[in-house]
Amino acid sequence: MNDIRLTHIRKSYGPVEAVKEVDLSVSPGELFGLIGPDGAGKTTIFRILTTLLIPDAGTASVCGYDTVRDYKIIRNKIGYMPGRFSLYQDLSVEENLNFFATVFHTTVAENYDLIKDIYIQIEPFKRRRAGKLSGGMKQKLALCCALIHRPSVLFLDEPTTGVDPVSRNELWNMLGNLKKQGITLFVSTPYMDEASRCDRIALIQNGALLSVDTPANISSSFPRPLWKVKSGDMHRLLADLRAWPLAYSCYAFGDTHHLALKQEVEKSILYDYLRAKGHIDIEVDTALPGIEDSFMALLGDHVK
């Protein structure tokens, strides 16, 4: 049995179709990532799965229970961290945790072993109001509150947005530890670099799934030769690379531009082209495709 299943799910807000015929399943104990930019439909899918939204069409289930018919049962079996910090700002760390434990008819002591590794990092601030915590500390408190009733499935909607890189890494390490305890984790993020921390991922854009597979398989499926290119004028370089007849696509990638080619070609041909365009300090190297490259390729194929 799958812990999460979406079958032909559709959801619209007026004329905007936020989710389009999504089919997806997540196995028990899996760390699954929903990867895509803002506005791709991630939060709508999360709200459907956590029984906060009713789909316009299709069915969704969590732990074998229908999200519409069995919403009360599901709410006792899941933990949910929404993208925006939603705990009580005026309550202390300790008060928030005790409140959520009481809501689920349990106590902090009863499930302390599950949150211990996370809570000890914020325990020195247990009497501080939640609204006065740093971004990373807020996320750790929210995670503790989502786990305090020992859920079977944990939903985390963009848990690292607005969080510093160190706290981002710490949170993903925590998720890895939770996975070892048998909790199914469903995480969304706009950060492609976080995709590699998942067992499987789904790439989503404009409400439609582009691919569902392991991060390694998605990266290795990149279909074209790929180069990383630099010059003394990066802004003009991007336009000139996109205008090159042998270019399939080109986009900014860190301090370089990633250039996907229509076919295998000698690098000297590109050097000649760019020198003729007046570029200097040109650097061209082979690039190893990653999740973001595959996402851009799939998006281009989807649009075409």
From TrEMBL:
In the UniProt record, the signal sequence range is: none
Q: Does the keyword Translocase apply?
A: no
Q: Name one GO molecular function term.
A: ATP hydrolysis activity
Q: Which CDD domains match?
A: ABC_DR_subfamily_A (cd03230)
Alphabetical UniProt keywords: ATP-binding, Nucleotide-binding
Query: Do you know which SUPFAM superfamilies this protein is assigned to?
Result: P-loop containing nucleoside triphosphate hydrolases
Domain named ABC transporter: residues? 4-231
The family database entries (SMART domains) matched by this protein are listed as:
AAA (SM00382)
| InterPro entries per the UniProt record, alphabetical | AAA+_ATPase, ABC_transporter-like_ATP-bd, ABC_transporter-like_CS, P-loop_NTPase
Q: Which Pfam families match?
A: ABC_tran
Q: Which PROSITE patterns does UniProt cross-reference here?
A: ABC_TRANSPORTER_1, ABC_TRANSPORTER_2
Q: What is this protein called?
A: ABC transporter ATP-binding protein
Q: Organism, per UniProt?
A: Candidatus Gallibacteroides avistercoris
